[in-house]
Amino acid sequence: MQTVPPSVLKIISIGFLIVGNLIGAGILALPINTGLAGFVPSLIGLFVTSAAMYYSAVILGGEAARRQEETFNYPSLYQTYLGTAGKWVAVAANLVILYGLLTAYLTGITTIITRLLAIQVSPSWLMLGFFAITALISLASVDTIMKYISLLVVIKCAAFVVIAGMAGIHVRAENLAHTNWSLFVCGIPILVTAFHFHNIIPAICRSLQWDQRVINRTMLVGMVMGFLMNGTWLLVGIGVLPLDTSPIGLINAFQKNLPATVPLAEAIHSSTFLLLAGCFAVAAITTAYLSNGMGLIGFMDDLISHHLGRVNPLLSRAFSFGPPLLIALVYPDIFLKAIDIAGGFGIVTLFGILPCIIALRNARTPRQKKLGIAMLLLFCLFFLLEAGQELGMLDISAEIEHWK
């Protein structure tokens, strides 16, 4: 039976689904971490990381399309190519990604509500309230959850357009002129996270009937739209916020682990901007929390069913949402750090280094092999730079900004 090719409307709708996954907590952190290096280095980094993440997405999309498995999952894929060790590296990396991101979302939402919307409630109670609401939503069917997510994606995209336009008139050329390539490493994990949508690639492939050319084109459409939105946000964030330790300064926001919307709202002094920035940030974090939470629940369902012989929905949710909540309650100011760890270690490993190894194993021409080696070295460099940063080799302060 001949399959009907996906319509242009379906390709565009899936492209927006990709954008909905790209525009999450990563975009809120983007100008803060990358802004230390300056606008031009940030924009170049944005292009390089988007190209690298698209390359890995094509590799993984190709594997999913070739296998055409309804239960396609990454640990099994890497076990096929790299054995049991590859499977457990993938499992560990996936836990780092999902636990790290969920922790970032929980701490980010409390910072936004308390500092941006000025609601006088204990951050711990706000965090527990958000946790309770999203945990209840997670008990609903996948179709119901997707309806909530779709509505929030529309809200955050509409709010983004308005706040980007409002902030654009406050951009100052002197803020964009600053460059410090030595601090570019601060932004690598955030840049990688800003182009992370790879968990939904198997679902995209199923929706597009396993057509590799259409899959690649659709992912490119989604990533180009994401690049334009991320680039606009970089222009706004770095252009408006000065590089200093004032309440609206980039260094201050970096040191205090603040989402970009917090200092931007203080810099612009507009009640309308404040309200819309709050809506955008809350919608972005909630959609990302629900999307990644669904992915983690499915991951836990698979692990628990293999060990207990059956799925336990409550146990899966306890293992999915419990650890991030505990970490967030103990370390409430860990927003940027959690994204750094998730992106610099988890995403770089699972959706960077490992796909490049697959590409090299499957390379048929010298050109494919050279490209695979170049991308593998790039992702390994990202990993090593993040390791150096976490080991304390980079010092950022009001007086000194350099590698130790």
Briefly characterize the structure.
It is built from 16 helices and 2 strands.
Question: Care to describe what's here?
Answer:
The structure is a single chain. The chain is mainly alpha-helical and 404 residues long. It has one domain: Amino acid/polyamine transporter I, CATH 1.20.1740.10. It has 16 helices and 2 strands. Strands 1-2 form a two-stranded antiparallel ribbon.
Q: Which keywords apply here?
A:
globular, 404 residues, Amino acid/polyamine transporter I, 2 strands, single chain, two-stranded antiparallel sheet, 16 helices, mainly alpha
Q: Provide the domain count.
A: 1
Strand order of the largest sheet: 1-2
Oligomeric state of shown chains? single chain
Q: Classify the helix fraction into a percent range.
A: over 70%
Output the helix-strand order. HHHHHHHHHHHHHHHHEE
What is the name of the CATH superfamily?
Answer: Amino acid/polyamine transporter I
The biggest sheet, with number of strands, parallel, antiparallel or mixed sense and barrel status, is:
2 strands, antiparallel
Distance between the termini: 64 Å
